[in-house]
Amino acid sequence: MSEPITGISSMATRRVLAELVGRWETASGGRAAIEAIGGVDAAKRVRAGETFDVVVLAADVMAKLEAEGFLAAGTTVGFVRSPMALAVKAGAPKPDVADPEAVKAAILAARSVGYSTGPSGTHLLDVARNWGLDPAGEKPRFVQAKPGIPVAALVASGEAELGVQQMSEFIGEPGIDVAGLVPAPIQSVTTFSIGIGARSARVEAARGLIAMLNAPESAPIKRRLGMEPAV
């Protein structure tokens, strides 16, 4: 039996990749092992020279990795688009997410707000600064999840009263209720791209996997898991 296609991704795409890769394995008879970790750590490992056949990270990070020669030139394509949502502990009152001022008021009133190390967390901190807050000086209010730990875990445990992260990170997580997608200007949609590692020895097999991951029939699965197709 041939060696599996290897890959690395951020946590945000772990569920959609697991389901789609499983379907690809059933249909093709091939095997793939894609590790999901914090996006910052994933990019560090790619830059450190680890060999991966496929890499799935935020589009801006993927563009940099390709420009730096860590991804095979011309292989990077869009994978999914992931909007941000707000979640509370299961059973807690849900803020009105249809009104940006109501969401702002809920965040400002919360004793603690969980956010991620990824693009959604960066955007939330920028929004907070635009509101005149200093997130670095308000650590009791803004609680960053450790790399690889979903914000949902902070909300479920009570460490964070509210959680803001990609919708895909909240779906299926225990102990939380999702209030819904946050509106603009609090909203920021992250695009995740997929590409082939520059040191991959299984380029054609990786191309086949990527084609299936972006096939039209994958779109309903992506939507069910809180994402939209990026191509």
CATH superfamily heading of the largest domain: Periplasmic binding protein-like II
Structural class, judged by helices and strands? Answer: alpha/beta
CATH architecture of the largest domain: 3-Layer(aba) Sandwich
Tell me the quaternary state: single chain
Rg, alpha carbons: 18 Å
Tell me the β content.
15-25%
- The total strand number stands at 11
Q: What's the end-to-end separation, in Å?
A: 32 Å
Task: Report the CATH C-level class of the largest domain.
Answer: Alpha Beta
The overall average pLDDT, rounded, is 94
Strand order across the largest sheet: 2-1-3-10-4-11
* CATH topology heading of the largest domain: D-Maltodextrin-Binding Protein, domain 2
Total domain modules: 2
Rough outline: globular
> From N to C, what is the helix and strand string?
EHEHEHEEHEHEHEHEEHHE
Major sheet description = 6 strands, mixed
General description of the model:
The strands form 2 sheets. The protein has a 6-stranded mixed sheet with strand order 2-1-3-10-4-11, with helices on both faces. A 5-stranded mixed sheet has the order 7-6-8-5-9, sandwiched between helices. It is an alpha/beta fold and 231 residues long. It folds into 2 domains: 5-81 and 191-229, D-Maltodextrin-Binding Protein, domain 2, CATH 3.40.190.10; 84-181, D-Maltodextrin-Binding Protein, domain 2, CATH 3.40.190. It has helices at residues 14-28, 39-47, 59-67, 100-109, 119-130, 151-157, 167-170, 203-213, 219-224; strands spanning 5-10, 32-37, 54-58, 77-82, 84-89, 113-115, 142-144, 162-166, 176-181, 190-196, 228-229. It is globular, with a radius of gyration of 18 Å.
